[in-house]
Amino acid sequence: MSGVSPSRDGVLAALREVHDPELHRSIVDLGMVGDVDVRDGRVLVAIRLTIAGCPLKAEIQRRVTEALAPMPGVESIQVTMDAMSDDERRTLRAGLTGGSARPSPFQPGGRTTVLGVASGKGGVGKSSITANLALALAQTGATVGLLDADVYGYSIPRMMGVMRQAVAVDDLMMPVESHGVRMMSIGFLTEEDSPVIWRGPMLHKALTSFITEVWWDDPDYLLVDLPPGTGDVALSLAGLLPTASFVIVTTPQLAAQRVARRAAAMAARVNLPVAGVIENMSWFEAPDTGTRYEVFSGGGGELLAAELGEPLLGRIPLEPAVARAGDAGLPVVAADPDSPAARALLAAAEALLAVVPRPALASS
Ligand SMILES: Nc1ncnc2c1ncn2[C@@H]1O[C@H](COP(=O)(O)OP(=O)(O)OP(=O)(O)O)[C@@H](O)[C@H]1O
Ligand SMILES: [Mg+2]
What we know:
13 helices, 3-stranded mixed sheet, 364 residues, 9-stranded mixed sheet, single chain
């Protein structure tokens, strides 16, 4: 034993480096550190959680312990946890957003690049591509939000491997984070498999709260996974996210490309640009022989991109690993980064970065 008991100030300084896993701010600055008591190498820290049953309790405890354990003279660490009072929560919430009601944080002049992933028809791989792009962008060091705007058929929670309920601080919802991506989805608000019947105005209200009542914290990118088709959701979002541009997903068939064109027409109708096109399920490569089979011929992605005068950001092969990874909750770019589909998706993310560079990179 060294005999030097750490100072209370030293402990606080170490705690200042600990960030809340959801709020990404120092727990000291957030007012989450209560009493700190240091006696003969025994450290007692009281943590004030934003809500009583905080699902990230264990992670916060781990971070606190990890920060204090290496300090000279620390022999034992005891972390107690209780919940903030309503007043404390309100103070914290006001500190985050600088007030109560606020408009969409994604307004012209804001720092976030907003990208809606759309297609004319269902099942072409929008959600898979959105999840993989989100991970790929996060891997470059960008902060990434993912808004699952598919309120009827949400699939993002499963694909990103997280099914828990979102936490609210006062009336501000915290995104749920997985694989370094902060997300919001109806799936984080309702019990799994409970039917949700949305009518037009409710739908708009849900999307509005997803944008204005969630603490997105101005990420570099906000990807929006749109439901299939060109209906109400796209119109609602265009109003709420006036700086968005669209990534249009299509499969190679000419019929699919014609349908995807409708998504592009929808973008034009709401006066939002198309950033590029991604063709999915472009070919299948036999794993034993490496032979490429163009399952759906047509070159739809290239034709659509040419027609729109926007880049074809990528062609993604049809590969069982994509579906498997999605089902397992870890998108293929992370689960199997060397697979042809993952490489194609990573290249598509890079092409996207060339069109919409991330702010920090753009200025350097
Ligand atoms: N490149 C691919 N290779 C193999 N399977 C894929 C590929 N892309 C998507 N899939 C699978 O196809 C199915 C549909 O994909 P996904 O849910 O991403 O499409 P979607 O366009 O979001 O559908 P919806 O319109 O219903 O929202 C999923 O089971 C997914 O795992
Ligand atoms: Mg989908």
